[in-house]
């Protein structure tokens, strides 16, 4: 016998979470209801504009994480806000069994500004890489006697699904979840010989790399590395795939990160983060010659729905109209110059490295426990991407005043840490 409706939850207006007013009330309820899988930073953020976000108490912070390399043209960009609200009032979601219109301008933007020919939209970076991996396996099945293995790099980050944990070459994303999905092998980054050594004829179907490693510590490869990997892939007829989830959409100073590297043209490219300008969106894209997925091979309920692609298309348009990539190039150089100047004052800084508006600051020792908290207190959001490394990924259009302000806050925090507190 089926039972009838059981009303477990009180009427919606009486839910505690709707009545909370203070940050502490929110945090207490979060601790009760939410899975504790992230160590959150203290502020409860309720609003953002440009490079700034505001907490529950009205305090402002420079967001030099850009919503995690997502809001490349800043928080609440007027064109994006307009597009998402207008689209929400028209149509948000249909199955991909039907045509909807906003998908196309964004697909066109990706194809016309890159070297790929076809796009498929999904919902996240991990899912984009999953799709690319399926495409690569099909390529191997059709052309390479069933080859299925994908070579990826140590210190990479490709997402947190079962397969992408195996692709991601970092033990702390893998150790608790063995056995890992077979079909991925992790080799040192920036080392073509390591890829050659891992290649097995009839087994390897593709190589998947980030143009610059983001989560792995802002690692910029030698300028000819990607091209040499590409040449090797061509020689072996395996796919050369680039994960542009973090580097795409202007961040490195070009629309797609690989365009900073001479002669590089991926067969397959994946996108996430900034491609949706704040809406949860991912994409994988390929050249015509390797467009091997056929009807029924892949799909997604939400992938590329009208709401997310309208949002992404408006963000992409803003990126073009306001020359986001050019701004990233200029502002990134300015930021790196300022950070390099900091090294004179703060010898604890051993290296400043990066490209465009993706910049890492490496220290000779682990960051002091108070450093990030101190920056936060003084109104700057930053990420410690490694125990001894800070990562800057500001909006591409952060102003020079905002960059100056951020570097001053960091400088003061470093001085305080050096003085022992
Ligand atoms: C963030 C990231 C991913 C994963 O994206 P999700 O949307 O979190 O699944 C994959 N690859 C790279 C390079 C990333 O930076």
List keywords for this structure.
single chain; 421 residues; alpha/beta; four-stranded mixed beta sheet; 35% helix; globular; binds pyridoxal-5'-phosphate
Number of helices in the DSSP assignment: 13
- Shape designation: globular
Q: What is bound: which ligands?
A: pyridoxal-5'-phosphate
Rg, Å, rounded: 22 Å
Number of strands: 15
The major β-sheet equals: 7 strands, mixed
Low-confidence stretches: none
Helical residue percent band: 25-40%
Mean pLDDT: 95
Structural class: alpha/beta
Distance between the termini: 66 Å
Order of helices and strands: HHEEEHHHEHEHEHEHEEEHHEEHEEEH
Task: Tell me what the structure shows.
By secondary structure, the protein is α/β, with parallel strands linked by helices. 35% of the residues lie in helices and 17% in strands. The chain has 13 helices and 15 strands. A seven-stranded mixed sheet has the order 4-10-9-8-7-5-6, sandwiched between helices. The relative contact order is 0.15. Pyridoxal-5'-phosphate binds next to helix 6. Pyridoxal-5'-phosphate is lined by residues 124-126, 157-159, 210, 214-215, 243, 245-246, 272-273.
Brief write-up:
With about 425 residues, the protein is an alpha/beta fold. It has helices spanning about 15-20, 25-35, 65-70, 80-90, 105-110, 125-145, 160-165, 190-200, 225-235, 305-320, 325-345, 370-375, 400-420; strands at about 45-50, 50-55, 60-65, 120, 150-155, 185, 205-210, 240-245, 270, 280-285, 350-355, 360-365, 380, 385, 390.
Topology, please?
Layout: H1 16-19, H2 23-33, E1 45-49, E2 52-55, E3 60-63, H3 66-69, H4 78-88, H5 103-112, E4 118-122, H6 125-143, E5 149-153, H7 162-167, E6 184-187, H8 192-198, E7 204-209, H9 225-236, E8 239-243, E9 268-271, E10 282-286, H10 306-321, H11 324-345, E11 349-355, E12 358-363, H12 370-377, E13 380-381, E14 383-386, E15 389-392, H13 400-418
């Amino acid at each position: 016998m089926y039972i009838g409706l059981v009303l477990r939850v009180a009427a919606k207006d009486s839910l505690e979470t709707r009545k909370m007013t203070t940050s502490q009330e929110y945090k207490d309820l979060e601790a009760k209801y939410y899975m504790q899988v992230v160590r959150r930073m203290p502020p409860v953020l309720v609003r953002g504009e440009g490079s700034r976000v505001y907490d529950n108490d009205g305090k402002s912070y420079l967001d030099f994480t850009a919503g995690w390399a997502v809001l490349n043209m800043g928080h609440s960009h007027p064109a994006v806000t307009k597009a998402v609200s207008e689209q929400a009032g028209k149509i948000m979601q249909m199955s991909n069994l039907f045509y909807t219109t906003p998908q196309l301008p964004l697909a066109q933007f990706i194809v016309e500004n890159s070297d790929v020919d076809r796009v498929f939209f999904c919902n996240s970076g991990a899912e984009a890489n999953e799709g690319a991996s399926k495409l690569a396996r099909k390529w191997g099945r059709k052309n390479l006697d069933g080859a299925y293995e994908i070579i990826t790099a140590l210190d990479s980050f490709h997402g947190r699904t079962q397969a992408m944990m195996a692709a991601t070459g970092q033990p702390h994303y893998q150790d608790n979840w063995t056995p890992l999905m077979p079909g991925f092998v992790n080799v040192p980054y920036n080392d073509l010989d390591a890829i050659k050594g891992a290649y097995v004829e009839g087994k390897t179907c593709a190589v998947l790399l980030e143009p610059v490693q983001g989560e792995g510590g802002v690692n910029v490869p030698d300028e000819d590395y990607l091209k040499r990997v590409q040449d090797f892939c061509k020689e072996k007829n395996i796919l050369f795939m680039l994960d542009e989830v973090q580097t795409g959409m202007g961040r490195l100073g070009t629309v797609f990160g690989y365009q900073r590297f001479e002669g590089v043209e991926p067969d397959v490219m994946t996108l996430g983060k900034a491609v949706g300008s704040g809406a949860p969106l991912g994409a994988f894209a390929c050249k015509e010659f390797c467009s091997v997925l056929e009807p029924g091979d892949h799909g997604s309920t939400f992938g590329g729905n009208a709401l997310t692609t309208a949002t992404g298309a408006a963000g992409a348009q803003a990126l073009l109209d306001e020359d986001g990539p050019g701004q990233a190039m200029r502002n990134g150089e300015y930021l790196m110059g300022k950070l390099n100047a900091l090294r004179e004052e703060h010898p604890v800084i051993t290296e400043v490295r990066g490209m465009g508006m993706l910049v890492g600051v490496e220290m000779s020792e682990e960051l002091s426990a108070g450093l990030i908290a101190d920056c936060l207190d003084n109104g700057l959001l930053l990420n410690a991407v490694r125990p001894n490394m800070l990562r800057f990924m500001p909006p591409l259009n952060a102003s020079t005043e905002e960059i100056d302000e951020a570097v001053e806050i960091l400088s003061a925090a470093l001085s305080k840490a050096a003085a022992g507190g």
